[in-house]
Amino acid sequence: MQAADFVTTTGTHTKAFLAAKGVAADRIFPISSVIDPVAFRPRDQPRRYDLVCISALIARKRVDLLLDLVGELRARRPQIRAAIVGKATCSRARGAGPTPRARRHVTSLGFGTEVRDVLWAVACSS
């Protein structure tokens, strides 16, 4: 962390801990993990997705497990729909999921998608 241009933390306690360990405090930026309930309130619209993954799509994030889960859930929920937001860098995240039938239930929205709209498409009143 000493060599990083900046470090993000999920709170001010972690910032204080890192600063006490020698990381320059002016390079540590706390990011809130709190979701604004007004901005992300349910909307009165049909639900578009049942599951959403918003992530850096790298192998260690294991997006393949989400694809496998969708494939398994299809037996109980044949109309399940999932969305992936992020830049696909591994083949399974680009759509090479467990089976072609499961791929029909996963939409890749790409990088730069408005996350709020995607979350609204899950948290609907219907």
Please give a structural write-up.
- By secondary structure, the protein is α/β, with parallel strands linked by helices.
- It folds into 2 domains: 1-34, no CATH class; 51-120, no CATH class.
- It contains 4 helices and 5 strands, in the order βαββαβαβα.
- The protein has a 3-stranded parallel β-sheet with strand order 3-4-5. The chain has a two-stranded parallel sheet with strand order 1-2.
- Helix 3 links the parallel strand 4 and strand 5 (106-110).
- It is elongated.
- Poorly predicted runs: 89-98
Q: What would you call the shape?
A: elongated
H/E order of the elements? EHEEHEHEH
Helix run count: 4
* Biggest sheet architecture: 3 strands, parallel
N/C terminus separation: 45 Å
Rg on CA atoms, Å:
18 Å
Short recap of the structure:
The chain is of the alpha/beta class.
Keywords, separated by commas or semicolons:
126 residues, alpha/beta, 2 domains, three-stranded parallel β-sheet, two-stranded parallel sheet, 4 helices, 5 strands, 24% helix
Describe the SSE topology.
Elements: E1 7-9, H1 12-20, E2 28-30, E3 51-54, H2 63-73, E4 82-85, H3 100-103, E5 106-110, H4 115-120
Parallel strand pairs: 1-2, 3-4, 4-5
